[in-house]
Amino acid sequence: MEPNPTSASPWDTALRLLSRRDHGRRELAQKLRQRGFEPEQIEQVLDRLEQQHWLEESRFAQVQVRQHLLKKHGPRRIRAELQRKGVAGADIEAALAAEAPDWFELAARCYLARFTPAVRLELKERARRVRYLQARGFEPEHIRHALDSFPD
């Protein structure tokens, strides 16, 4: 049973949230604000968590990149999601570089997971498949590779 938010300190609440999974600074601050804690308290707690290395943007970015790769998301989508969560561009690029995925191979696997390769595709169907890969966050060259690897 979760403690009553009015009786729990921001420190205890932050630790409980971090014990479940990594959070980014912005995300954790938002959750603490939603629980009614004062902005000054939140900043102090976040600073202390960072000093003790319990809250690290770089680790959060790496975990998020790995999770997105497991979902077969492309680089555009991963960058957009991490930017939305407040992760700095340098941390995003470092996490992507650390994982160093083969985007072409990932796009092809994503394509095969969703579609059956066909000898001939009508223009409308090909466009639908391209849109699917675009929505997954792949770059145009990755999409071309995926479709051309399995001729239509």
Please tell me about this protein's structure.
It is found in: Cytoplasm. This is Regulatory protein RecX. Helix content is 68%, strand content 0%. It has helices at 10-20, 25-34, 39-51, 57-70, 75-84, 89-99, 103-114, 123-135, 140-149. Helix 2 runs antiparallel to helix 3 (39-51) and helix 8 crosses helix 9 (140-149). The longest helix is centred in the middle third of the chain and has 14 residues, at 57-70. The relative contact order is 0.11. Residues 1-5 have low confidence and may be disordered.
The count of β-strands is: 0
Percent range for β-strand residues: under 5%
Mean pLDDT: 90
Number of helices: 9
Secondary-structure element pattern, one letter each: HHHHHHHHH
**Poorly predicted tracts of residues:** 1-5
Q: State the helical fraction.
A: 55-70%
CA-atom Rg in angstroms: 20 Å
Major sheet: size, sense and barrel closure? none
Task: State the secondary-structure class.
Answer: mainly alpha
How many domains make up the 3D coordinates? 3
Distance between the termini: 55 Å
Characterize the overall form. Answer: elongated
Write a concise keyword list for the protein shown above.
9 helices; mainly alpha; Arc Repressor Mutant, subunit A; elongated; about 150 residues; disordered N terminus; 3 domains
Provide a concise account of the structure shown:
It comes from Zobellella taiwanensis. The chain is mainly α.
